Amino acid sequence: MDSSSSHDYKNKQRTVLLTIMAFASVTLSLLLLAFSYYCYLRNKVSNFLKYSKGIDSDDKGNSHKTTQLITEEGLQVFTFKQLLSATGGFGKSNVIGQGGFGLVYRGVLQDGRKIAVKLMDQAGKQGEEEFRVEVEMLSRLRSPYLLALIGYCSESHHRVLVYDFMANGGLQEHLYPIKGSNAVPSNLDWEIRLRIALEAAKGLEYLHEHVSPPVIHRDFKSSNILLDKGFHAKVSDFGLAKLGSYRAGGHVSTRVLGTQGYVAPEYALTGHLTTKSDVYSYGVVLLELLTGRVPVDMKRSPGEAVLVSWALPHLTDRDKVVEIMDPALEGQYSMKDIVQVAAIAAMCVQLEADYRPLMADVVQSLVPLVKHQRQSSRVSSCSTFSATQSPRL
Ligand SMILES: Nc1ncnc2c1ncn2[C@@H]1O[C@H](COP(=O)(O)OP(=O)(O)OP(=O)(O)O)[C@@H](O)[C@H]1O
Ligand SMILES: [Mg+2]
User: Fold this and answer.
1) Dihedrals φ, ψ of 388, to 5°?
2) pLDDT tens-digit profile of 120-169?
3) Residue 59 a catalytic site member
4) What domain of life does the UniProt record list for this protein's source (predicted)?
């Protein structure tokens, strides 16, 4: 073989080798791709099976089962029988409230844990959707400022949600207490109201800024702020919640849902939903805490019927803020505090959504107020204590 044909031969060899290597690496990449897709599908199917197992197993009459079924996310799957026994057969005497979803019952689990049980009253598309969103959202959200979902029951046509029991119920019951058929002054003092404002703000801050994509609550209102036995607040009811846009300042378009008096004007008009829609609703709750008035009261004169329109002109005027304060709070607050809280409320309910603050800003502004209020009540309770003790000295 002469030198040129040996060179040709070597070149050919190299080309064949390169082709084989290229072919091998493409095949390997395809195999890897196929394998990861297989893993992804397998994971999806197993999650689905786990979820449907939780939902359906009791349909097949598995009432003899004693072990409590738990979903991957840690939610308990109850049988309807278990919840019947926890609530005294959903007895009338155990009813603690009623909302759009249905009646709410007090109950006790076998391990002694107190629960609140929401029983869906009519199977409809809206109810089913609320049930599904509530379960899905609360499976992935964890914060001390959100009401925890313990579990659910989805047996044949029954849809039931099971929560931690909050001994002091909804905030609205304490802001607008009723005895017999008469409204009576609220016992909720200024220090507790300030702390509730802060804890509820922390709940929304978590939803908007600590999870990705952000969660827009869409039904933030005083009846969805629940109070435990020490009057600590937790935000509840995620049945209407939506995942927000990943883009800063982005919106999602949805049907307008929510509660009259709390819905942000731009959302009501355009259906464009952002976290700033929740900030507006938060501002309305702040106004309820300041004034002790409901967001819409058609029994009042036209100028006073809508809380935001009535309060807004007073909020940024130092001398006028006192005029809108809840009379039940008289003597409990400092001018400095109410001016600051009113200013936060004014920023939250302004028409221009972009100018409303982030919930993190609201939290930052409220923290020093709550701290200061706590310190001054400690000082005053100490001085009362020494005053009552003084005769003994
Ligand atoms: N976990 C709980 N612990 C104690 N009481 C609760 C609990 N959940 C709900 N409640 C009581 O039941 C009432 C009704 O709650 P529900 O969330 O069903 O309706 P709502 O908030 O008034 O209205 P909507 O259906 O529009 O949200 C609350 O105001 C509260 O008093
Ligand atoms: Mg509610």
Assistant:
1) -75, -25
2) 987 666 778 888 888 888 888 889 999 989 999 999 899 999 999 999 99
3) no
4) Eukaryota
The residue type found at 271 is G
Q: How far is the CA of 224 from the centre of ligand 1 (A)?
A: 7
The pLDDT tens digits of the residues spanning 37-63 come to 665 656 554 444 444 444 344 434 444
The confidence score (pLDDT) of residue 25 equals 76
Residue boundaries of the structural domains of the chain:
76-164, 171-385
Q: Are strands 149-153 and 76-77 parallel, antiparallel or unpaired?
A: parallel
Could you tell me the two tokens for 231? 């009057």
Q: Cα dist. 81→86, 161, 315 in Å? A: 9, 14, 52
Q: What is the domain class of 171-385 according to CATH?
A: mainly alpha
Confidence check: pLDDT of 267 > 70: yes
Ligand 1 environment, Cβ below 6 A: 96-101, 104, 116, 118, 147, 163-166, 169-170, 173, 219, 223-224, 226, 237, 259
Please, what is the average pLDDT of the chain? 84
Q: Looking at the DSSP assignment, which residues form a beta bridge with residue 107?
A: 115
Annotated active-site residue in 58, 59, 219, 326 = 219
Superfamily of domain 76-164: Phosphorylase Kinase; domain 1 (3.30.200.20)
